[in-house]
Amino acid sequence: MYPIVVVDFDQKRGTSFRGHRRVNLTGVNLDPLPQHWYLLRSDPASGVHNMAVDAALLAYAQTTSAGVWRCYAWVRPTVSFGRHETVHGRFDQDSLLSAGLDVARRPTGGRALLHSREVTYSVTMPLADRVSWRHAYAAVNRILLDALRSLGVDAVLVPANVAAPTRPDGPLCFDAPAPGEIVVHGAKLVGSAVWRARGAYLQHGSILLHDDQAMLVGAAQAPITAPPPAAALAVCCPVAPTSRAVADALESALASRYAVQPFVTPTLLASSIDAHERDFTRPEWIWRR
């Protein structure tokens, strides 16, 4: 992790927010999410760069009281592996190149998935060490669910007692939903992964516009089982939304609960992104397991 120095959110140029709402019981804030948020939309970028930005924002979250909600996309179809996922014998550089796919390894957990025609979100925020990441995960997924329902999607959360937790070396990400994930009629729509650092939390994931996950079968080094059809928005939404419409819905769902404003990127964040990108480009990171 590369430390960066930033000005605290509440001190920066006397920033003020409207729409502040806090839920308290006996003086304790029960909401694990920050009350103040920055909104960031990034231009399409390579997989390695996208992962570097999220990692740098995680470091940023260790220095501030606000969260950053980011929406982004990918310049080329890219396979991302989970931080601790074992891919040796399943994928290699040659098999992915032959299939026309880029590769990156995420700073978060989870399993392999293909990023192509989707809206990718990331949430980076401070999170006290005493607060379970599962509380943050559930709160973020509730915002995702609200946004998708506002688009007319009949989406629900997978109950904890219905799906078994997935292993990092298990099947592909969209093979089966995990507890707390978002599905439509049992088919997975959003694949998410998390990681926490000291006092901070990162969650990011793919909201599928179209289901391209079967491309991973042809990109594998050894035979793998094709994932079942996913619940892409082009199929399960009454009117297929654009990526902009999905990002708008996500930001509106967040703004309905918290105070938000556009993110002005701190100057020193760029050096943190560059440092992470150099690390994430190394074969020793991408092919570490």
Which descriptors apply to this entry?
single chain, 289 residues, alpha+beta, BirA Bifunctional Protein, domain 2, eight-stranded mixed beta sheet, 8 helices, 13 strands, 22% strand, disordered N terminus
Secondary structure elements and their pairing?
Blueprint: E1 24-25, E2 28-29, E3 36-41, H1 47-61, E4 67-72, E5 78-81, H2 93-98, E6 102-105, E7 113-115, E8 118-126, H3 133-150, E9 156-157, E10 182-184, E11 187-197, E12 200-208, H4 215-219, H5 233-236, H6 243-255, E13 259-262, H7 269-281, H8 283-286
Parallel strand pairs: 3-4, 3-13, 5-6
Antiparallel strand pairs: 1-2, 4-8, 5-7, 8-12, 9-10, 10-11, 11-12
Helix pairs in contact: 1-7, 3-6
Looking at CATH, which topology would you report?
BirA Bifunctional Protein, domain 2
User: Which sequence of strands runs across the widest sheet?
Assistant: 9-10-11-12-8-4-3-13
Largest β sheet strand count, sense and barrel closure: 8 strands, mixed
Q: Based on DSSP secondary structure assignment, what is the total number of beta strands?
A: 13
The overall number of domains is 1
**Helix vs. strand class:** alpha+beta
CATH homologous superfamily name?
Answer: Bira Bifunctional Protein, Domain 2
- What is the terminal-to-terminal distance? 20 Å
Strand content: 15-25%
In CATH's first tier, which class applies?
Answer: Alpha Beta
